[in-house]
Amino acid sequence: MCSRDCCSGPGGSHRGNACTDKKGAKSGSLAGEKIIPTPQSLLYPYEVIEEIADFITKGSGMRPRIGIICGSGLGSLADMIQDPKIFEYEKIPNFPVSTVEGHAGRLVVGTLEGATVMAMQGRFHFYEGYPLAKCSMPVRVMKLCGVEYLFATNAAGGINPRFAVGDIMLMHDHVNMLGFAGNSPLQGPNDPRFGPRFPALVNSYNKDLINKAIEIGKAMGIESNIHVGVYSCLGGPNYETIAELKALRMMGVDAVGMSTVHEVITARHCDMKVFAFSLITNKCATEYSDKKDEEANHEEVMAVAKNRQKACCELVSRLIREIHMASP
Ligand SMILES: O=P(O)(O)O[C@@H]1C[C@H](O)[C@@H](CO)O1
Q1: Owning domain of residue 107
Q2: Please, are residues 6 and 21 in contact by the beta-carbon 8 Å criterion?
């Protein structure tokens, strides 16, 4: 079988039934030979996750309580961290690398508003070629580092016509389109040390944290820019067609992106409390038009994220302060 960072990510590839690892060595089997499937979950068994978590907790001298995943262009959330200990993804054993612009590719551990935190400045997306279990593997690392709360953020297209560019949508639910297609980060044998075989996902998004965030939005004077809504993740990397956006809207989706859902599933499976929000970086057209400026593009996504980073940082830091003050 392929080695740890196998064919399922950049650097390796499938050829027929065989696979090549990063060094190009053929390590699978060709047609006619015995083929042993490797379920995604076995790419990162408990012991490997534990090793990565030990590397981070020993290297930082901390057991962080809050984990943050920075969305596209929202890396500044991690820049708020005090006394940061920085781990480049390349230097973390068994860690994938970031390949997307706006995702620096480093883990930052330190304190924020008095709380111990670890932040991913760069997440892994399905469209980068990583299977879902690999995309959300860092959430399990967070869990074994001691994280109780996951803060997942993303850049997303607004489908709800009431949303404006620059608004923040607090996620209270999601529609798992990749799950509709039979893909899940929890596929393969279940390790009960992480969580149950069949986790429930109702109430995945912590209501207390949503309510606190709404109050914080009011205190910041941005209540009209804060919404509560439903996010959906498609595989990307292409943005959606009009017909897809219309269908998503009919399903009750308010914002669409290419991440977060599999991270939330993984976090809920191992019983973490989840707070997540989308920064609306573009409005999604749901009617046919020839106007070029209605087409989504990553430059616009990054520019809007940069413009709104101050508000996003304040929301996150105030919420973390409340969590820490309520139970230091
Ligand atoms: O990592 P997130 O979900 O914030 O990134 C979004 C989705 C794509 O990666 C990219 C598209 O512009 O931004």
Answers
A1: 40-326
A2: yes
* Contact yes or no for 76/102 (Cβ under 8 A): no
Q: 230 CA distance to ligand 1 centroid (A)? A: 16
Instruction: Please indicate, yes or no, whether residues 107 and 211 belong to a single structural domain of this protein.
Output: yes
Q: pLDDT, tens digit, for every residue of 186-242?
A: 999 999 999 999 999 999 999 999 999 999 999 999 999 999 999 999 999 999 999
What ipTM is given for this predicted complex? Answer: 0.99
Q: Domain tally for the chain?
A: 2
pLDDT of 35 strictly over 80 = no
CATH number of the domain residue 315 falls in:
3.40.50.1580
pLDDT tens-digit readout, 45-60: 999 999 999 999 999 9
Q: Cite the annotated binding site for phosphate by residue number.
A: 72, 103, 123-125, 155, 259
**117 alpha carbon – ligand 1 mean position (Å):** 23
Bond before 237 cis per omega within 30 degrees: yes
**In Å, what is the CA distance from 324 to each residue of 94, 239, 249?**
31, 38, 37
